[in-house]
Amino acid sequence: MSNYIPTIGVEVHVELKTKTKIFSPSTNGYGEMANSLTNEIDLGYPGTLPRLNEEVINLGIKAATILNCKIRKVMHFDRKNYFYPDISKNYQITQNRTPIGYDGYVEIEIDGEKKKVEIEEIHIEEDTCKSAHRGEKTLLDFNRAGVPLIEIVTKPCMTSSKEAKLYLEKLRELLTYGDISDCKIEEGSMRAEPNVSLRKNESDPFGTKVEIKNIGSISNVVAGIEKEIERQTKLYDKGEKIVPQTRRYDDKIGDTVLMRVKETGNDYRYFPEPDIPFVVLTDEQIEEVQKTIPMLPDERRKKYLELGVSETNTKKLIQNRNLSDFFNTIIDEKTNHQIASNLLLGDISAYLNKNEKTIDETTLNKERILELIKLMEGNKLSSKNLKEILDSILETNSKIEEIIKEKGIQNITDDNKIIEIVKKIINENEESVTDYKNGHDRAIKYLMGQVMKETKGTINPKIAMEILKEELDK
Amino acid sequence: MDKLSREEILHVADLARIELTEEEIEKYRVHIKKLLDDIEKIKDVKGYDDEQLIAPWSENCILREDRVGNMLEPKEVIEHAPRHSGNYIQVPVVIGESEGA
Description:
The complex is a heterodimer. Chain A is of the alpha+beta class. Chain A has 15 helices and 16 strands. In chain A, the strands form 4 sheets. Chain A has a 9-stranded mixed beta sheet. In chain A, strands 5-4-15 form a 3-stranded antiparallel beta sheet, with no helix packed on it. In chain A, strands 3-16 form a two-stranded antiparallel ribbon. By secondary structure, chain B is mostly helical. Chain B is flat. The two termini of chain B are about 40 Å apart. The model of chain B is unreliable at about 95-100 (pLDDT under 50). Chains A and B meet through α1, β8, β9 and β16 of A and α3, α4 and β2 of B.
């Protein structure tokens, strides 16, 4: 255990889900042939001019709103100058002085307590091209050049890797639910860079900050922070100084490695981008965008629990955006929402996984799931029978009642009929009845099995069990 | 004579990743100082504020609709590059990682 208090901040870059790039009409895409999604603007040819994509500003407003930030209504862009082949203009267009969002927070829950992770700012910028180093050459792919990004910067307000992990998970959940980014860390559409410093006491000024880059997963963020705390603790214990620097996390060796001693902010020689006039947002524009924000995870969680959905199902539904969106179509309906969640997470999910489909690719809709729930609640369809007709329910538009008829499934809902069957089973199994009366619990399970066999699973097992018990105890 | 320090010139050259001869260092100590002095004169212009210096016109930014437009064929991209390897543009190996985003 370290004798120092860690201070952690995180910078996160996410690629925005737009159709085109930030300053050019090239496709914003991933996984395509190298240099197939570019034009003269992305390549930084002389004489080209950037034209700002409206959707980038809209997604920036959305992100700022979701992360509880204030929104800047008059902003401009700046040039960050540096010489490196990943940016052929030799400057990156970013927002240095007027970030679109500032002073926000993300709420996390740590060990049962709520904590606000403070957001310093959100700024919009362009992504660089992707460079790959191969022996004596560096290869450049400009498909990524000009992909719109937002960078979300927290204040140095976290004190453990666990907090950083919870923050990143929450951030990812919010941004994916807000349709702002798909936040795929493994594809680089979400990149987290934590910074770590140590100090002895809370009252001391912050220690020297070290940044960690190139982290490919949230678990590696945790590992990177832990290793950095360890490294800095050792240095302080030896009485050595921490040099401001950027390190990268190497998951092959499970440690951080020095990348470079950091250039200072002034070396970037920021100045206002002269090719883009002021961007001015109106209240109406901001409100229009805010109206498009879908129901966010925290609100969904609250609503589902209110509707009587179990905690486990609530959690699972929210983990699956498509299912949760589908579930939202019935949240204002009077129905059994727990049955609905069971159906979606159980048999329907199994079908979707098996057939590699999403729920939108099936014929299930609001009306059909409500009909299904009604049939199941009224014992007109048992879960066993549901399995038999599920494919038809999800692949055709026929009424579910008709599918049931067609398949010849008839549920026995008449209590007298069930009593009749139960009596028959009791008469045929005297030995088990005696066992039951002598206190052998397993006997009733056997008898119940016989009832189900006799009825081919077309009765509600709960009701059958009740009747069986009544008849045995007579 | 009024000029920049040797260190300042070497620092700027380093940021631009260029090497300078002794002769060039001396030349730029004078030239860049003169350039900076000229730029300083902007401050003497009366009746301007910072915002006008950032964008001296009254029109605000007109945003582009998010619709896919013209792109180049990979062939066109690489034929303008001095060197390429497959569809990639090839440059001398650069040690260190991406500085930007």
